[in-house]
Structure formats: C-alpha cells, structure tokens
Amino acid sequence: MLEIRNLHLAAGEQVLLNGVSTRFEPGRVHAIIGPNGTGKSTLLRTVFGENKPAGGEVWFDGINQASCKGSTWRHLFGYMPQDSHIAADLSVLEVVLMGQMDRLGMRVSDSQLTQALQALDSVGLLHLAHRPIHAVSGGQRQLCLFAQVLLRNPRVMLLDEPVSALDLKHQMVLLEQARALTRERGWITIMVLHDLNLTAQFADIILALSGGRLLACGSPQKTLTPQADSGPL
Ligand SMILES: Nc1ncnc2c1ncn2[C@@H]1O[C@H](COP(=O)(O)OP(=O)(O)OP(=O)(O)O)[C@@H](O)[C@H]1O
Q: Which residue, of 94, 101, 189, 214, has the fewest CB within 10 Å?
C-alpha cells in the first residue's frame, strides 16, 4: 500500500499541493485527472521523490520516504515522466535497458537482454530495437519509455500522460497492458490522463485534482458525474 498524508508543496507564493491525502492500493489502476497546471505531475514527482514536500509524508508498506535512501526508494518505482530527455545516440533497445541502469553490471546479461527484447515486443517495437532513438516517431518513443518502465518490474508504476503521443490503437495497447500487469502482478499504478473516456474505461480509482487540492477520489461511477463534467475538471 502506498499512502500520502497531508502533502504540501509550494514554489514561492504559489501553492502546488495543498493538503493532499489518499491511499493507493496494489492491483489497482489510479488515474489523476484535472485541468492544466493543477498539480498532477507535481504529485507524481513528489511520490517518486524528485520533489521534496514542504509538509506531509509518503509511505510505502511501512517505509517512510523521508527516512529512506533516495536510490532505495526509487528502486520501488517505474516512472515515466511527461517529458524526458534521452541521449540521441542510444538505440531503442539501449533506452529500454536504461530502465535497469541501477541493476546492470559491467555487462548486460543474456536474461536482461531477453527481458528487454520481450518488453519491446509487448509494445510492438521489436522491429525497431536497433534503430537510434532519434530516428523513431514521438509515439514510438513513448512506447519505448513504457517498455523501459515495464522492464523495471516496479512495485509502483507512475505514468505521466503515457498516451499523449499515441494513436487510438496504441493508446488501447498501452493502457490494456498497464491494467493487465497491475492486476496480475499486484502493482500499484498511478497515471495522469486527460481523456475522460479512457479514464472511465481503464481506471479503478479516479483522483480529481484542482488547484493542488484533491476534490474527489473514488470509482469512475462515483467521480465522473455530470456535475464533475461541468465543474473544474
Ligand atoms: N519547479 C517549479 N517551479 C515553479 N512552479 C512550478 C514548478 N513546477 C511546476 N510548477 C507550477 O506548478 C503548477 C502545477 O504544475 P504541474 O506540472 O504539476 O501541473 P499539471 O496538472 O501536471 O499540468 P498539465 O496538465 O499541464 O501537465 C503549475 O502552475 C506550474 O507552473
């Protein structure tokens, strides 16, 4: 179980997170929704440990983030940021293997290589494994970063707008795979989505953020009401 308690974060005068508390359950897909600039990415980064909260706590299975070594904490996660810089001279396969950077020795083992190729195959990119990352499309790069997250076999998957560059077919491929692995392996998945139809289809729990506050949290039936549709979401 991942739990955030009364998280506060500010940048100068601007309040980014304002007393956010909730629990994230294993085996469930949680979607964070809300308008632009409302703190969704900030929340993911704070859970991952990239932002240090001004107040509040993040716990995973009895471990307090604040008293855990950063590298040990991050080991729990597969984090796919909204924008990520990738060194242009790496191949698609090397980018996927970078997901194992903290676990790779001097040499990539046969089993690591096999798993990386399987992860690429599962997102339909095996045929591009040896192509330089700068020579694939934006959508293919997004799928490659998702494969990188899968290779980590994380306890918690944090996906920030993971389908923003994908066509409809690949949106479904990625989200179906994320949901299946979350269920099968008991991962905790937290993703930021803007499309409310996809959110209703794939999320078990929806968290609606506005102005750094958690406005609503619950099943799609409970949170995606006509009132919410016309409100600040
Ligand atoms: N490092 C920072 N310093 C100052 N302000 C920041 C910083 N990072 C984010 N912000 C501000 O915090 C607010 C929340 O940003 P955040 O990226 O979390 O929003 P979001 O809900 O993910 O938005 P979007 O849907 O556009 O991706 C925004 O107003 C943004 O300008």
A: 101
The pTM of this model reads: 0.93
Give the pLDDT confidence score for residue 104 in this predicted structure. Answer: 61
Q: Would the CB of 36 count as within 6 Å of ligand 1?
A: yes
Give this complex's ipTM.
0.93
Strand order in the sheet with 55-60: 14-24, 2-11, 55-60, 63-64
**CATH topology for 1-76+154-233?**
Rossmann fold (3.40.50)
Q: Whose CA is nearest to atom 7 of ligand 1?
A: 11
Beta strands 14-24; 156-160: pairing state: unpaired
Q: How far apart are CA 155 and CA 76, in angstroms?
A: 5
Burial degree of 168 (CB within 10 A; 0-12, 13-18, 19+): exposed
Residue 2 Cβ inside 6 Å of ligand 1? The answer reads no
Q: Is 42 in the pocket of ligand 1 (CB under 6 A)?
A: yes
